[in-house]
Design a protein that fits this description.
Strand content: 15-25%
Structural class: alpha/beta
CATH class: Mainly Beta
Order of helices and strands: HEHHEHHEEHEE
Radius of gyration: 33 Å
Number of helices: 6
CATH architecture: Beta Barrel
Helix content: 25-40%
Strand order of the largest sheet: 2-3-4-6-5
Shape: elongated
């Protein structure tokens, strides 16, 4: 047992002495390499939230002031970022659509108003900014159908977090407008 103990101890001492020796080679440095880093971002260049001279909010300004505006009538101006249309007809009804009379079109609009989710659109200060979009609800489906992406529009309505009827809930806020 004594010789066994000496062998283990000598192996440990040998491993410690060999494993702890310092390396003679230092880090490799190449003098011919030039490091080029990108310019730091200009955080001041981002457009701050603003209001228009007529008192209309920009989308970002309204979202940032959401807590102060819940339940209030506000005006907001921005670009149409996206529209979502309520689809109510199936492909078989398309040829007959052109022949519908005025009463049938009214019935179709009434049906569109009852579909889920109803037609709505998103307003933004920058069409490509998906993070700062305001949901516009309550507008008549025929009006939503008539807008195009990038079109500048102004809406007046009640700002809140839940739409009339509770179909839409959005923490950043939404605008309930009159049809």
């Amino acid at each position: 047992m004594n010789s066994r103990y000496l062998r283990v101890l000598s192996l440990l001492i040998f491993a410690l002495l060999c494993g702890c020796s310092e390396s003679s080679s230092g880090p490799s440095v190449r003098a011919d390499v030039e490091v080029r880093l990108p310019e730091p971002p200009d955080f001041q260049a981002q457009q701050s939230a603003r209001m228009y001279p007529d008192g209309a909010y920009s989308v970002l300004a309204l979202i940032e002031a959401a807590d102060r505006n819940v339940g209030l009538e506000v005006t907001v101006r921005g670009l149409v970022a996206d529209t979502v249309m309520c689809v109510v007809e199936d492909e078989g009804d398309r040829p007959q659509r052109a022949q519908k009379g005025r009463a049938e079109k009214k019935a179709q609009e009434k049906h569109e108003e009852a579909c889920h989710p109803p037609s709505h659109l998103y307003l933004a200060d920058d069409v490509n900014d998906e993070g700062s979009r305001l949901l516009i609800v309550g507008w008549a489906p025929n009006k939503v159908r008539g807008v195009r992406q990038g079109q500048k529009l102004t809406f007046r309505g009640t700002f809140g977090r839940v739409s009339a009827g509770g179909v839409f809930i959005r923490q950043s806020g939404l605008l309930n407008v009159a049809p």
